[in-house]
Amino acid sequence: MPLFDQTGWRIPSPSHRTYSNKKTDYYKLNEKINSIEEVFKSSLKYFPSLKDIKFESFLSHLDNLKELISKSDVYRNLLNSPFYPFIIPLNNNKVDIGEQLENYLLPLVEERFKDQFPEFHFKKTIQNNQPLSKKLSVSELSRYQKLIDLNQENIICGFYFPEALSGFDIPSQKQQMRELPAFNDVCLSGSLDICSALIGNPQMLVHKETYSPMICLTALNHADKRITCLFKSYGPHLEFWGLGNQLMPGVDQVSEQWTGGLSFYKVISK
Fold first, then answer.
1. Between 126 and which of 22, 95, 156, 242 could a Cys-Cys bridge form, CB atoms 3.0 to 4.6 Å apart?
2. What would you measure as the largest C-alpha separation in the chain, in angstroms?
């Protein structure tokens, strides 16, 4: 049985809680996806430590990764959905992941977004106004720790597929990873890859004609299990939220608007 349908949406198992038994399209991402060259130029500007990486190397690694996905019987349908190139600079400081997100990555996403859309705003809202430092950890099911560990000594490039888990509740986004076959390398999407993808495509959630999905950083657990970290739009504005995901105690909401992503990545050599 295939795991992804022709739209690139993860086909749920009976144990997964989803908004629908097929992907809906009411919430839409911006149709424009910047070229790989544009993504590379933006990444160099906001991650100056990448200055020694050549565009040809970035492109060849992404081409190779895309070819591997296209040859996979399990994953090739994902290429029918929107996907966004990213590059993550070397992260050799073992900083707290919540502190890194709040004090380094989010300010860069804000700067990039405001440079692109000076008339719009970026807003950060965390429930109960609590800082993210010491509040976030990596989900054991996410396979995200491998990306973090590799990134300690390597620059990472890859593709972010934000709509792969559209309409799945948060626990099901994590649980479905148990069924995904191994691939070098795939993980639930988190802070490093999503923020890097937004630096390459700051317009991702800006849609003039309809509402955009809320893209969840599902690879990360909050110390308060009721809270999920995500990016969302408010009209033309971009916002980051630590948002409550339960409508009643112990029951996670199932929302058409919430989506979890999958990220495929490779170590990039100079």
1. 242
2. 51
Number of domains in the chain: 1
In a domain? residue 67:
yes
The answer to whether 266 and 185 are in contact (CB under 8 A) is yes
The rounded distance, in Å, linking the Cα atoms of 101 and 79 is 28
Q: Which residues of 55-84 are buried (b: 16+ CB within 10 A; e: fewer)?
A: eebbeebbeebeeebeebeebebbeebbbb
Is 18 inside a domain boundary?
A: no
Domain span holding position 206: 36-268
141-160: buried (b, 16+ CB within 10 Å) or exposed (e) per residue? bbbbeebbebbeebbbbbbb
Strand partners, 238: 122, 233
Digit-coded pLDDT (tens) for 77-116: 999 999 999 999 998 667 899 999 999 999 999 999 999 9
- Please report whether residue 147 resides in a domain: yes
Tokens 């709040």 belong to 102
Judge whether 101 lies within some domain: yes
State the DSSP code for 101: I
Measured distance between the N- and C-terminal CA atoms of the chain, rounded to whole angstroms: 40
Q: Which residues contact 15 (CB under 8 A, 6 or more apart)?
A: 172, 175
3-class secondary-structure state, position 219: coil
pTM of the predicted model over 0.70: yes
